[in-house]
Amino acid sequence: MNSIEAKVVYKSLNSCLVNLPNKLVNFLYQGNILTQNVVVELSFKSPSTSGSSRSGSNTNRKNSTSKVYTGWTGHTSSVNLPSTNSVSNDENIIEIDPQFASANDLTENKKIGN
Asked: Where is this region: Disordered (predicted)?
């Protein structure tokens, strides 16, 4: 399956699973794909350091691609929640638990995919 671009939005899910955009969920349902058979790859640019000075500060920073693998809750991402005011209706949203996101360096409103 091809990748899509989406924006990360925090939602307390109390799990390491994610809610997917409506367009993607419709595709999965139409294909009769079971929730437990879905593996979600989240790829995003993350700063990495390539060396540090003696004082401990970073001397070079370049972007590298990070990947996180997770599962799907079986639910669609909600739209127009108070926490998603900066998200337009035509934008793909992936809802993720804040603790799981921060453990994987995924900040809210970060663009993922492509």
From this structure: 45-71
